[in-house]
Protein: Oidioi.mRNA.OKI2018_I69.chr2.g4850.t1.cds
Organism: Oikopleura dioica
Amino acid sequence: MKLSATLLASVARSQWTPPEPEPYSHILSTGTEFIGAKNHRGTIEFKGVPYAQAPTGELRWKPPVPVEEYSEASYDFMNYGYRCMNYGWTPDMPNADLTGEDCLNVNVHTMAEYLQPGAEKKPIMAYIHGGGWNTGSNQAAFHNLVKAGVVEINIGYRLGPYGFLYDETQDDFDHKGNFGLLDQRAALAWIQKFGGEFGGDVNNVILDGCSAGSAAGWWHLTSEGSWPYFHKAITNGVGLNYAFGGHDLSIATGLTQATLDAAGCADVDCLRSMPAEELNPHFRNAKRVDGAFHPTKLALQPGWGPVIDGGFLSASLVDNVRDGTIRPNTPISFNYAEHDAWSMTDGGFNAAIKNIPAFAPHTNAIKDLQAAGFKVPSDFTDLYFKEVFGEDVFNTYISPELGCPNSASGETVECKEQFFRWIQGQTWVCNSRYAFSGAPSTDTNIGPIYPMEFGWRTCEEVDGVKTKTCHCGESGYVNSLRSANPNMPEDEQALIEWTSEYWVNFFNTGTFPSTVGSMLSIQDLPNINTVNYINPSGNLEHPETNVAVCDVLNAMVEEFGADDVFGGAHWFYEHGPMGPQPCDDVDCGDNKVCVNNDDGVTTTCICEDGFIEVGDACVDDPCVPSPCHEKATCTSTSSSEFTCECKPGYSGDGYSCITDSNVKLTLSSNGATFIGELTSDDIAFFKGIPYAADFTERWTPSEARDANGYEVKEHDFTVYGPMCMTKNSKSTQDNFDQFDEQCLNVNVMTKPEWLTDGTKHPILIYIHGGGFNSGSNRSKFTNLVNEQGIMVVSVNYRLGPYGFFYDTKTPDVDGPRANFGLLDQREAMKWTQTFGAEFGGDIDQVTVSGCSAGSDATWWHLTEELSWPYFNRAITNGVGLNAAYGSHDIEIASGQAQYVIDNSICAGEPDEEVIDCLRGLDNHDELNELFRDATDNVYHPIKLALEPGWGPVIDGDFKSESLMDSVMNGNVKPNCPISFNFARDDAWGFTNGGFRSCTGRMPAFADSEEAIRDLQREGFEIPSDYTDIYFKEVYGPELFSSNIESQFGCPNNADGSANECKEPFHNYVMGTTWTCNSQWALAGAPVTDPNIGPIYPMEFSWPTCVKNDLDENTRTCHCSENGYIIGSKPIADYMSDDEKFMQQKMRDYFGQFMRDGTFPYDPEFGEMKDVKSLNGEFNHINMGIEHYRSYPDTCDALFSLASEIGAVNVFGNAYWYYEHGSRE
């Protein structure tokens, strides 16, 4: 469709912004009016409130001058003030006018109720932003935390050279640098004076931050001048490091002198007269001058940052904390990520290569190895250690644990893991433990200090799975930035819920609850290496961590001292034989670097990285950046010419390189060639094959490629295609570039011999889960292919608002208005019919399957006739025949679409143009925020589980009735074997989130939220009386008493104390959304109509989650059965014989089902029966197959209720009372 010229111009001029905030007037106790903003999330913001005078002119590089009063009658604080100037700023950069030196302001976030006279005062979070002291701003907002009862005040402070230039000539005040720290202290003093005006308790101020913001917290904790202004501290993402201070004083003076030299100034007063646009180039150049950087520091070298100046601090953080110079009786939550240094390891190694003379002869060799894929290549980390500490120290202490030489045959190996462990130990972990092992371990007036290592995986995706926990990964959980929703994995929901509970409690009391385990202080932990550890499953444990590397560093400290070991690895440069070097007095000229020769006397000048030698000059290297394929080596032949050559193991012209470990498939239809990867498991793996047109316009149906749909050439399908864009995708994500709207691709796993031997094998089409809003097709099915002989096609489809936006506006649409994600899946099925046989698949033996939303989608296809020609049988896992999508939800879908329209630049466009207008918006950050806001503002108020925000709807086109009604009435693919499976406790991981959502949305709970949260902090996940209130509000008091109370009621005890209600509430959610609703549907036509099925219902009850005190699983959570059915769960040695037997039998049983639609019978395991022979019972798998009813008491109660008010009102997300009752 074509946009009008007027509309194109409109889209080009503007992008969507959040709804305009409403002005909010607040009168201070002095009578002064502050006009803030009530935002669309419900919090009140006062932005850009100055706490000190502008540090410009004569006040540049002087301590801040506080604002003592606000003398005008009214102030407008609806908009942010300036972000603080940084040395990277230029006047022509985007949004340059938002940055300035007049930036000493705070942003206050509170709630209207906290501002009312007589309201209880709330803890104050004094948040200091990160950014390595040189970047960042105070414009983050912690809405969840504010709503949980904390007033947030976010502090702006001077950055980089504007905040930390060190002027040793100053003699008129105590502090010659550290102005950014003094700004923070002034802001804390302002909070003491004015924080109460915003509902805050000035006697309960908590320092908080991440990265440099938390390093600042430690500086204030150990600087007595800051102590009167706060009471607790939370630090995230840093250790007690020497990154700022110690030897860095000489770096600081070197930076100042380099700046003066570059600017042609004799003193700092001269610099004060220069505007920022003139100063910043000099600041940038100063960082490149020898003596203005630490040559051996591997991480957290900011350039400009705090220094130990004898004023703010007189000793390092490590020494101060170890000696007990720390604010007394101050609760401290000390947190870091398990792999905090991981993302800085590559950069640290590359900085060492650049800064240490010993690497100069090796730079090209290292560059080649890095181009070959070695991020930190072997031998060179050993060279670093030998150069810094000396060979004897390396051999004695470092090599046994952290050495990383080439292999015995001389081959290069990857050393990132070893080098990371050194940096993590030296700068985050072991240095801090050394400090804590002093006074904090014995002095009862220190702390309590709670050390926490965060191991929940947050970064470094491998095959779609996050494998590391990177820098500041814990901060979003500690500070309640993460929001749980019922479509997340249950362990992630639980983690978000309990971490928010724990740290909100810390904000209030300085202690932690014990809901999921005890958070222990240093003095309560058994030894200094034991930490509070949040493991990758989201559980709280108390293991020893980093013991080996800390043993190495502690032994070195014992001999050489902490300053030399933890102080930037400085020992050998200070004490070793390196001394003066021949290159010290050599100037090689432009773009050249001096190298000391091995004789220790002569030197050689070589070109710097990024330059090549042409004659006597060094000119730009045409291979930087490389124009070649990522798997090719670029070689410069002149100043403008180069060659590209594929690396060993790859073939091609250098611009396109294909792995030699590949397989090729030539299509019989038109001769196009597909190149796939031959995996180590002997799988032919074709990745990212587009099954639809190269471009599918937003909110239009996709169309499968036909037999001639691929150009006759070689197509490289050895790397994954893009994942589908989601509403939660943000450009700040490390992997954002892997998301795209043009994402309609499949991955095919088959056997290499099947491509040529003419045999045909059953096909599994796998539709991934993720609540229709997340996920991808990057799962692997190695065991299914190798053991069961099944070819697998894994499908990407459009997600969330990109796949399920409901177009209610466009008149006379020639095609569907919604459900584009489901239509994509159907087109992938069509593609499989066209191309499946090319990969050795039998297109007459196709099983469609998935888990969670993938299985819900499978049911949509089972009940939609236009999908029937493309598959022969189905396996559904992790869902019931629910009404989660459809029915009343069409009102939600249309409401969300209308919200997007109303709050975008497309509002007011004619109906026939408004959707085209939305299609023209291409800023995904802004668009996704709008989509997220739509789900926050338009929702089903009483739905307890599986509310995706954006998902399929019964639109009269794809479907005209609910899944439950379709199956009950017999509108399901005839003569189609269906294996219908769910977990015994499938709803367990959704129950807490569903309860929390409803208590936050339903009017009946408006006055109870705080009381509920208090009970949850005491350990009640779902406290009593409140589930009864839910049922009464939804169904009315009479139906509650007559039909619900006996089975699901959960009142307080006779003495008024609370009960835990999660079990009965889970049973209700399980019954309405998974099992009883499905039993109701299966009792209709599937039992009586011989042309339906066979349908095999199975409840899986092998425990897989929720550990007890004995570390035993006690529940069987969402989609647990999926890994056993498709064989993705490995059969491991640690498993019991019973589990190994059960797992192998499930592989064999479901493998046969995928091959022929039947189940085998092994008397040792049991018989899988179809619904017609079960007489209302289900197949149940634990150690074998048994037959009995699923949730009989729960279902009897719900069936009784359904017979009275109708099944759709019970199983349609408990909607009856909102539709028919009185909502007083």
Remarks:
- The chain has 41 helices and 42 strands.
